[in-house]
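// run 5 | inverse folding | seed 20
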C-alpha cells in the first residue's frame, strides 16, 4: 500500500468540508424552492422527506462531478456485472457507463429519490440499457422493495428468494435507514452462487493493520453530524462488518469474499469488491 503525500492527506482532510458546504448551499435552495415555488409548507415539518428532497437536488447537481474519478478497481469490477441484476440506489445512473450492456440481460434500478429518475432513465438509455433497464421508485427495505418487484412481476407468487444473478450497491448502504435489514433482503434475493458487487465509503480502518489513520478517524467523527444532516449519509459506517455478517456470522453466508480498502488513510476510505453467496 502506498503512503499518501502531505498534500494528498491534507486535501482529503478538507474534502468532506467542501462537500458539506455544497450540500448546505443546495439546502438553502431547497428551502427557498419549498417555501416560495412549491409553497408546500407541510414538507418543512417532514424532515426525512425534506432531507431526501434536498439530497436529490444535491445529487442532480453534483452527482456526475462526484462520479468523474471512480477508481479503476471499481470501473473494472462494474464492467464484469452480468445477467439479471438489481441495481440498488443508482441515483442519476452515473455508474451505468461502466457496465457492459451486452452482458446484462435485465436490470431493475431501485431508486427511492424520485427527483433523480429522469436523469437515471436518460443515463440508462445512453449506456445502451434503455430497453433492459426498469426504474422502480422504491427503497431497499423489504416493505418497499418486495412489493415494487412483485408489481413488476419479478417475484413468482410474491416469493422473493434467489431472483438475481448479481446485485450492485455503490455508495448507497450509507444512505439507507436500515442497512442491515436491507442487506438481509438483498441476500435473500440473490441466487445461490450470485454476486453482491459493492463500492462504499466506510469508517477509517485505523488499528486494523490495513493502513488506517487515527487522524482521519478523528476527522470523520468531527464531520459525521453535518455530513449526516446535509448529505443524508453516514460517513463512518462499519459497512465491512455488516457485509461479513449478512447471511450468517463472520462471513459464513458467503462462499467467497473479495473486498479491498482503497485510500485507507483518508477521511473517505472505500471498500471495493464482491461477495459470492453460498450455494
Ligand atoms: C451517493 S448516491 C449514489 C448513487 C449511485 N449509486 C452512484 O454511486 O453514482 C446514494 C443513492 O442511494 C439512494 N438511497 C437512499 N436511500 C436508499 C434506500 N433506502 N434504498 C436504496 N437506495 C437509497 C439515494 O437516493 C441515492 O441515489
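// decoded
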Amino acid at each position: 500500500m502506498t503512503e499518501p503525500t502531505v498534500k494528498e492527506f491534507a486535501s482529503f482532510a478538507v474534502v468532506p468540508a467542501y462537500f458539506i458546504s455544497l450540500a448546505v448551499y443546495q439546502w438553502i435552495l431547497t428551502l427557498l424552492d419549498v417555501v416560495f415555488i412549491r409553497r408546500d409548507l407541510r414538507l418543512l415539518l417532514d424532515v426525512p422527506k425534506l432531507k431526501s428532497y434536498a439530497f436529490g437536488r444535491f445529487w442532480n447537481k453534483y452527482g456526475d462531478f462526484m462520479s468523474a474519478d471512480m477508481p479503476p478497481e471499481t470501473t473494472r469490477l462494474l464492467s464484469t456485472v452480468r445477467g439479471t441484476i438489481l441495481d440498488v440506489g443508482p441515483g442519476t445512473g452515473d455508474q451505468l457507463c461502466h457496465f457492459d450492456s451486452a452482458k446484462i440481460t435485465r436490470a431493475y434500478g431501485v431508486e427511492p429519490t424520485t427527483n433523480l429518475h429522469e436523469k437515471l432513465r436518460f443515463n440508462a438509455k445512453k449506456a445502451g440499457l434503455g430497453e433492459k433497464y426498469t426504474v422502480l421508485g422504491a427503497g431497499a427495505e423489504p416493505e418497499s422493495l418486495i412489493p415494487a418487484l412483485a408489481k413488476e412481476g419479478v417475484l413468482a407468487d410474491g416469493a422473493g428468494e434467489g431472483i438475481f444473478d448479481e446485485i450492485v450497491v455503490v455508495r448507497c448502504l450509507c444512505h439507507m435507514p436500515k442497512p442491515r435489514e436491507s442487506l438481509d433482503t438483498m441476500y435473500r434475493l440473490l441466487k445461490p452462487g450470485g454476486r453482491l458487487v459493492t463500492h462504499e465509503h466506510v469508517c477509517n480502518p485505523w488499528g486494523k493493520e490495513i493502513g488506517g489513520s487515527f487522524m482521519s478517524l478523528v476527522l470523520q467523527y468531527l464531520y459525521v453530524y453535518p455530513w449526516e444532516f446535509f448529505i443524508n449519509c453516514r460517513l463512518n459506517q462499519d459497512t465491512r462488518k455488516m457485509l461479513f455478517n449478512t447471511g450468517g456470522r463472520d462471513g459464513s453466508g458467503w462462499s467467497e469474499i473479495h473486498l479491498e480498502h482503497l485510500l485507507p488513510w483518508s477521511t473517505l476510505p472505500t471498500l471495493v469488491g464482491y461477495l459470492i453467496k453460498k450455494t
